[in-house]
Design a protein that fits this description.
72 residues; 4-stranded antiparallel beta sheet; elongated
Length: 72
Amino acid sequence: IALTASFGMDMNDDINKYSFALGGRYYFEQNGLFLGGGIKARRYAYDNAPDTNDFGLSMEGGYAFFLSRTVT
């Protein structure tokens, strides 16, 4: 099991973007597959318009190659 978090900023002349995400993953050790999900929040700050917010859910799946029991 892994917990994930991320934070991002993109500062431009006309718009500033801020993002934050929290999530988790479950790894199946016997075959390397993983499933995960999380929640994301974004804020768009415009120079000449009202700010907007965006929220969403994310789902992911994939394959992880295990180098050791704790490192993929």
